[in-house]
Amino acid sequence: MKIKKLAVLVAGSFYGITAFAMTAPQMQQTNTISTEHHHNHHHHHHHHHHGVENETPVENAPTAESHYAEQPVMIQMSAFSMANVQASAVCNVNALATTNSTTLINEIKSQGVQCVNELFSASSNIQAAAFDSNNMYAVANHVKTLSQNYQGGGDANIEAMFLFLRAGYFAEFYNDQITFAAWVTPAIKGAIDAFVNNSHFYDDNDAHGQTLSEVIITMDSSEQQDVYLPIITQWLNRWNESYATKWNMRNAVNNVFTLLFRGQWNNEFKAKIGTQTDLVAALRKFSTSNYMIDSSAEFMLANAARELGRLKKYSDTAIQSSVDAGLKDIFSRYEMVGFGDVAWLGAADTASYYGNCNDYGICNYGEQLENQVLSQTYICSSTIKIRSQNMTTAQHQAACSKMGYEEGYFHTKLDTNNIPVADDNNAQLQVNIFDSSTDYGKYGGPIFGINTNNGGMYLEGDPSKPGNVPNFIAYEASYANPDHYVWNLEHEYVHYLDGRFDLYGDFNAPTEAIVWWSEGVAEYIANEDNNQAAIDTIKDGSTYTLGTIFNTTYDGFDQDRIYRWGYLAVRFMFERHLDEVKLMLNSTRTGDWAAYKARLNNWAVDYDAEFTQWTQQLANGGGTVNEAPVVAINGPYTANKAELINFSSQGSFDKESSIASYTWNFGDGTSSSEANPAHSYAQAGEYTVTLTATDTEGASRTESTTATILGDTTPTNQLKNGESKAISGAQDSVLKFTFVVPAGASNLNFALNGGTGDADLYVKFGAEPTMSDYDCRPYIGGNDEICEISNVQAGTYHVMVYGYNSFNTSIMASFNAGSGFNVPDACATSGPVTAGRLYDGQVRCLAEQDTIWLSLENVSGQNSIAITTANGSGDLSLEYSNQGWPTSTNVDASSTNSGNGECIYINNQSQYWGYLKVSGNARGASIVVDYNTPGCR
């Protein structure tokens, strides 16, 4: 969704909040209802939000309405879909707006939490009537009695009553018609105390947790953070592994961090906090509880560390030495990237903002984190650059190919002539891709200063400034396009194009509603005519008129109306009234919003009946004809006789589904069904090579290219590994070389060395570099120039040496050959792991220690598990068990090859967890686990 220039495009709803401490630090992360498959869209402006995400728009406001859900489960959803986890109740908020307190209490009980929740967004008049001081007093006294008699196991009436009370404080904060009498808060304190003093207050079950959550939030909403400091300390000290396994208990106790956060606006709290050494000790204990690492409670670990660091705000108080000791414990115990990083980063966020970063050795940690995490760079074109955490060459190429396709399709469909709107200088998009939604949640905030409780963001910057670089921030996900696995890549890239070529000004420039277009065209270009989810919304009866769709905003409207009906409206106008669309774009490209609105008003009248008829025809037709895959054969190819050629299908994709099979015919009587085979030719000559791709529906397409096979002589311009070559040239002369790098190679370098004059070095993978298009250009005077390639790719590198002045020097290219296993060198791009969990496809650098214990999740749900190690020096060995940690009598599989090249390939696992022991104290070794592959790498 296009939010604003200097702004945010949010693609989905997720996990937590983190922020780089050069901006005001954030409060806590929140409990997640589902796994990363839950990816609804939400609208956020690019500001630093200090409260609980998705709850308060003002940092010192009381917490907003609750999001009630059943016990969380894995929710499988398609793009932009929603799931109602609990049926909505039939509510009558007018009945809650009564002066009769007995009637009110009965209505709260009969309507329940779902309906009381609606008071947060009720009209100001309804709120003023419902939250009369007498009503608040009566409800507080009633729930006090209920709390005294509470038997544990949760209580829907107590829950609803406390929700009503805190909704009252929320309404008082925003509604000028409401001011509570002085005797309201003492009555509410009496109700809270009755629940706190009940023997079941510290019970350990999810039903209790749901009720407990409302009580703890009411402590905060009633501005009694100072009163309940002992309760906060008690919960932090009592917290244990049993509590941590329960969703509602996590959700409830996580609210104590809200009390600590919002206490900074409470004068009584500020007067007390400086002596709370017991609280500091409890926060330190909590934030160093390792059992929460890599668990569903990990977000609480981060919150505790963040609030410990926030105590630096209260300078010159008695607690400061204890706070410093706790922070130093976190920074020494955990890693910035790796084991315990959520706690490290949470503490760094607040400690560096409120304290002195030099005291903890964490200055400039945001820059260090960025360089370490987003260490891969891949240049798609002059308009797209990718920075990634852990993508393969194939993924980079597929992502580039897909964006290239989208770019061409966009310009053709919208007839832009590739001319940006006035005052837009965004010449190149930087795409930043984290390895997972979890890594995005952990690292996105410190690096980019954003909230990460979403599915990605587009930060456009200020396009009127020359040199401005817009950033799309994304992550890989198993449910994304399987060609590249980057979530929302297509949709968000269209936002960039739309903002640059269709919409004048920033997010605040349009004076009329534009959401239907910005989201609709992103969906339409990304999905084209293949959007069954949109067609399904027609069938379920939730239809909208064209005029209603045009008035859509991000505030208060559901996902179907914003995305699916936006898609349908845009598609309808393109199919039926393209000339009108072009006239509308003339207005949006110049910022003539009055003309834009007038045209939409006419459309709403002239085309509404036609639109309704069109949607019904579309629903009855049930979709579109399956198209054959787009095939990228990536030729022509050139090699010597008997030399392996790495043929590539990268960039091939299927718009409707996925590619099921590939068939290569090499023109010499041989063929292959691999997607990216290696093949050599016995005889010199020119061969016709064909590639046929077939999708899951059976549609096929074939493309052809040539393979030119040379004789036995090596071309004079082909560099050999580790061999120095003398070169010379005049001013402005150009020498060109190639260098073939095999799979598994590492430490790839290109260097000019010594001699006289001044030569400039340019390097590019897969194509010849130019003076404006290259992967590496050192920019150093003289001849001592070096290009160190961190993301080594198998294939041909092209080298150009340009004579800035006349020169006489030498050139050498070199790499370290792989171990026979095709595992990227993770130690070149990330820090080592000493323990923890391995994830499918994630390559990790192994620490130099005798024994490393690693776990693998959900191995029983996989057809096969492949564990591969490679690179570095030393002699690793692997032992694996599905029945607990490996011992001398508990080993299901092992690998003890000489060196670091090890492989374990297993299947038919019966238990959820797999357990791996790595031994050998190797240096620079990498490890990867792959699920459902034919074998090790």
UniProtKB/TrEMBL annotation:
It is an enzyme of class 3 (hydrolase). Residues 38-50 have a biased composition (Basic residues). Its EC number is 3.4.24.3. One of its GO terms (biological process) is proteolysis. Its main location: secreted. Residues 1-21 form the signal peptide. It catalyses: Digestion of native collagen in the triple helical region at Xaa-|-Gly bonds. With synthetic peptides, a preference is shown for Gly at P3 and P1', Pro and Ala at P2 and P2', and hydroxyproline, Ala or Arg at P3'. Residues 34-66 are annotated as: Disordered. The active site is at E492. One of its GO terms (cellular component) is extracellular region. It is found in: Secreted. It holds the Pfam family Peptidase_M9_N. Its cofactor is Zn(2+); Ca(2+). Residues 628-709 form the PKD domain. One of its GO terms (molecular function) is metalloendopeptidase activity. InterPro entries: Ig-like_fold, Peptidase_C_arc/bac, Peptidase_M9_N_dom, Peptidase_M9A/M9B, PKD/Chitinase_dom, PKD_dom, PKD_dom_sf. This is microbial collagenase. The lineage of its organism: Bacteria, Pseudomonadati, Pseudomonadota, Gammaproteobacteria, Alteromonadales.
